[in-house]
Each structure stands twice: as C-alpha cells, then as structure tokens.
C-alpha cells in the first residue's frame, strides 16, 4: 500500500472505503493462512482447508471493522486473536475431528485418566505413549487438537473469563471490572515472571513469539514431547496462581 500504516487506518475509519478494506484483507491474507496451518493437526481436504480460510477471513474482516489504533495495539496482534477465535468457534460448532483422531482421542483420554489415578499427577507424554501403545507423533497431534479445542491460549482464557473482545482491546464497562482486569494482568505477568527459566521461555516463545513445539524444540535442543511437558507444567502453575479467575 502507498499509505503508511497510521494513514491507512485514519483513512479507513473516516470513510470505510470498501476498496481500501479489500487492500487490507489482501495484505493480511498470509496471516490468515499462517493461523490456519498452525491450527491444523491432521490431513484435511482442500474443501475443508478453504472453509477454514473463509472463517479466518471473516475474523479478519471483523478485526478490520473493530480495530481502534488509538488503543496502541498493533493490528496484527489484534487480528490474530479475532481470526483464531473465529476459526476455533467454527471448529467447535462443527465438532470437526477426524474419525481416526476420535478413536485415538478416546484411547488417550482413558489412558490419561488411568495414569492420573496411578501416579496421582498429570502423566508425561512419554508415559502416555508407552501406556496406550501409540507413537509419540500420534499422541502429540491428538493432544494438540485437545489443546485447540479447549483454547489453552492465555490471552483467550482471560478474554473468555471477562467476556472481552481481546486482551489487548479492552472495553471495560465499569470501574470494578477495570480493577479486576488490571489486577489479573498484573498477576499474570508476575506468574510468568516467576516461572522456572525453561518454563518461562517456552511460554514466551509459544504464546508471544507464535512458535510451535517443533520450532521451540529446535531452539532449546529438546524433543517436542519434552517441550509439551514443560508447557503443561507451566500452564498448571499459572492456573494455580490465577485460580480465582478461572
């Protein structure tokens, strides 16, 4: 685009020009595709892929219409939450899990429950893999789907809890809500800051640098299953600290 970013939004918010909106959509289509690819954890048809892209575009358009530059948040950050949220809502409504994955999910779910009772704690990926007889890749893919379905994103957990549009785009309705929100953000920051070094790094890379387990495993020179285990421990610690909010 010929206009700089600030001018783009100033112009669009003043006239809602559909041609400019189309330019913005085209510019951020790679972001939509990136988010779709990150959420996909099994083979899908071209038609299913296009359905997810379409849902992502709906989220992108929603972000374009509601974005307020004055809040000091980058559009890409705001749009990512809206796009991902739209796709996940669609997946939930469609109950979109391949039949083969459903069988593995049930098997893993039963295995996890058995191991929880046996060890009185959350089992590791290695323990699940050994107990259910599936390979590590299948276990990780299935657990990834469960994570997407449950929306384990810290930002989305907070968003859902407070029924806000996004953590970075807060429209507080009253002073009490503002106090609660600020307190939650403070506690979340403290919780992450006080994590063990490796857990804090995994959380930062996964949620704020938008890297997946495979990318993080290469950076830290650890296996994907180990990264998954570290991530699970970190989330558990954070949820224990923020328990009153969830």
Automatic annotation (TrEMBL):
EC number(s) from the headed UniProt entry: 4.1.1.65
GO molecular function, one term: DNA-directed RNA polymerase activity
The name this protein goes by in its record: RNA polymerase, sigma 28 subunit, FliA/WhiG
Pfam families: Sigma70_r2, Sigma70_r3, Sigma70_r4
InterPro entries: RNA_pol_sigma-70_dom, RNA_pol_sigma70, RNA_pol_sigma70_r2, RNA_pol_sigma70_r3, RNA_pol_sigma70_r4, RNA_pol_sigma_FliA_WhiG, RNA_pol_sigma_r2, RNA_pol_sigma_r3/r4-like
Coiled-coil blocks: 174-201
GO biological processes: DNA-templated transcription initiation
Species of origin: Thermoanaerobacter pseudethanolicus (strain ATCC 33223 / 39E)
EC category name: lyase
UniProt entry keywords in alphabetical sequence: Coiled coil, DNA-binding, Lyase, Sigma factor, Transcription, Transcription regulation
Every RNA polymerase sigma-70 domain range: 212-238
């Amino acid at each position: 685009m010929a206009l700089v970013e600030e001018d783009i939004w100033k112009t669009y918010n003043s006239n809602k020009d559909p041609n400019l909106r189309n330019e913005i959509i085209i510019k951020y289509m790679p972001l939509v595709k990136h988010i779709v690819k990150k959420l996909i954890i099994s083979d899908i048809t071209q038609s299913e892929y296009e359905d997810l892209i379409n849902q992502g575009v709906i989220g992108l358009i929603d972000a374009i219409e509601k974005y307020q530059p004055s809040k000091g948040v980058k559009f890409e950050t705001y749009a990512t939450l809206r796009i991902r949220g739209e796709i996940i809502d669609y997946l939930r409504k469609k109950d979109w899990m391949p039949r083969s994955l459903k069988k593995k999910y049930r098997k893993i779910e039963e295995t996890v429950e058995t191991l929880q009772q046996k060890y009185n704690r959350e089992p590791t990926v290695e323990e699940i893999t050994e107990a259910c007889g599936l390979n590590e890749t299948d276990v990780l893919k299935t657990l990834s789907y469960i994570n997407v379905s449950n929306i384990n994103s810290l930002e989305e957990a907070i968003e859902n809890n407070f029924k806000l549009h996004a953590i970075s785009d807060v429209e507080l309705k009253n002073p009490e809500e503002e106090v609660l929100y600020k307190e939650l953000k403070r506690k979340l920051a403290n919780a992450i800051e006080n994590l063990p070094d490796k857990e804090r790094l995994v959380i930062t890379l996964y949620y704020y640098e938008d890297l997946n387990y495979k990318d993080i495993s290469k950076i830290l020179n650890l296996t994907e299953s180990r990264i998954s285990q570290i991530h699970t421990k970190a989330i558990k610690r954070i949820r224990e600290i923020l328990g009153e909010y969830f």
